[in-house]
Give the backbone structure.
Amino acid sequence: MTTDIATGARGRTRKAILDAAVRALAQDPAASLGQIADAADVGRTTLHRYFPDRAELLAAVAQEAGQQLSDAAGRARLDDGPGLDALLRSCQTLLQLGDLLTLMFSEVVSIEACGSELGFTQALDDACARGLADGTLDTRLTAGWVQGVLWSSLYLGWSELREGTTPSHDVVSQLLLTVRKALAAPAD
């Protein structure tokens, strides 16, 4: 029983360090390990027991981002329904990633690297291809352009949320309107 408690405590401590790293790095991509340890309310020695150096911590943050992207893909049901609808659902779920989006947009972690790890990149590629094939996305656009517009619009939405000048429900509705108008197949 002691092992289970230690494992549970170890898991919680590791998660607290990762969560603090995401917050601290989103505020300052150059945040030191000491600042991250302070944010996690642990000593540097404890942080180093879990993550001996910055590279290992960043790799763990990227892995966490990959897992959260994978979870977001599942919540967005990227493999379900018309492609445009799947992309619109992905906008809503991706926006909920919070500070992890900041890390991806500021390239502290690579969207491609963490997204390909657990299938998010492939699920997004498949949704784009499906939308171009099912006629819900404008076929004059390439899949790469579709994703560029999606990520650019998402960046704008996340920037608005971070600034706190626009209510979140307005950000979401404007994001969805923008993506729909930019990517939807023209009406016949």
